[in-house]
Amino acid sequence: MSVPLIVGWHHTTFGKQPGETLESLVTAAGRGALADAGVEAADVDLVVLGTFNSGLQPLGFASSLALEIDDDLFGVPAMRVENACASGSTAVQVGINHLLSGEAGTVLVIGAEKMTDVPAAVVGRALLGADYEAAGRESETGFAGLFAEVAVEYERRHGPVSDTLGKIAAKSHQLGAQNPFAHLRKDLSVDFCSTVSDKNPLVAAPLRRTDCSPVSDGAAALVLRTDPASSGHPPVRIDGWASASDFLPKAKRDPLAFAATELAWRKALAAAGCTLADLDFVELHDCFTIAELVMYEVIGLAPRGAGARLLEEGAVLPGGTLPVNPSGGLKSKGHPVGATGVSQHVLAAMQLTGTFPGAQIPEARTAAVHNMGGMAVANYVSVLTRSEE
User: Fold this and answer.
1) In angstroms, rounded to a whole number, what is the distance separating the alpha carbons of residues 95 and 172?
2) Which of 82, 166, 221, 336 could form an S-S bond across to 33 if both were Cys, CB 3.0 to 4.6 Å?
3) DSSP string over 222-263
């Protein structure tokens, strides 16, 4: 079977972008990815756009926005996929499926979200639309309140997490400060991130502001093919990929199991023929610091309840056994919902080709990307490898 290749990519700056629209973000990312790949618009066979929206923008039919990149895209099929915070990686896997089925030889995948045009209450309602119990209800804490429940349960089973979450936040800020694409680029100390203060208030106990990813605007795009294009860098292979979904009702899920995430992780690594020891870094979905802590244990870096020791030992830092989120993760890079999964693939590809402008992992050859929607309901994992071509 042919191996899907990421042959080009582009990433906008994440953050509050008052001068940008959803259309301008989509077109900038898509145009940049085609140029990076050395691919003409006329060569594109399919456009897949990942965007959540859920009322964040009045245009609910955004699939053909990408055709504004170039008039030569007229007639090219364009589709929008939505899968909550996993919309971006869903778009990537939809693109892979069309590529390998032979229906398309060149696929342009774009992830984008414009979130900061509307009041915080509107953003909160939109995001809560991804939760079975909270959808349509008023909430002062939004999704932070849902992940706070995960943190409370973690503390009940395994002990206090406040200092551990502070260390995760500080790691994310340190790495995000080096990433020119990141929304939050301020290096914050462990002490600041671990302490409730006027500048770091509780959002939903025990989660503080520094435990939460910011509301961001942004886009990322990549070009998929099965043969290398004429870009100025080697392509990146997608050697394994998998997805798995969990039940929506909370009562049918253990809040700490992330069971479908674990399943997708195992399936993707098996498809790639590799193990955890073969990975040089991971970009995982850390919408909240407690999600990153739980994910350490879900992917097998530490036994259940023992994730804190990875921070104490430096295992998840650059130079450690398996660096996690060298981009700064969602926590510092930002989380424009539909853009996130595509962003993770783009920044991993940059790392693997030595072109990432932030904290570069030396000699990185293989990486994994994990993206989830809702409370680990929709789960996507990819294994990326530097091509030697």
Assistant:
1) 30
2) 221
3) EEEESS--S-SS--EEEEEEEEEE--SSGGGS-TTT-HHHHH
How far apart CA 117 and CA 217 sit, in angstroms, is 9
Q: What is the DSSP string of 359-381?
A: S--TT--EEEEEEEETTTTEEEE
Torsion of CA 288, 379, 160, 132, to 10 degrees: 80
Helix 259-272 / helix 289-298 crossing angle, nearest 10 deg: 50
Residue position matching structure tokens 């072109």: 355
Distances, alpha carbon 249 to alpha carbons 66, 134, 246, 295, 307, in Å: 35, 10, 9, 21, 27
The β-bridge partners of 79 are 48
Please enumerate in sequence order all residues whose Cβ is within 8 A of that of 61, keeping only pairs 6 or more positions apart, or say none.
80
Quote the tokens at residue 340.
């996130």
Closest CA to 113 of 248, 214, 244, 224: 214
Rounded CA separation 211/234 (Å) = 36
Residue with structure tokens 């699939």?
63
pLDDT tens for 271-283 read 999 999 999 999 9
Half-sphere exposure of 307 (CA within 13 A, CB side): 27
pLDDT, one tens digit per residue, over 199-227 is: 999 999 999 999 999 999 999 999 999 98
- Of the candidates 290, 375, 339, the residue with the CA atom closest to the CA atom of residue 56: 339
**Using CA atoms, how far apart are residues 58 and 121, in angstroms rounded to an integer?**
16
pTM of this prediction? Answer: 0.98
Cis peptide bond upstream of 214, omega within 30: no
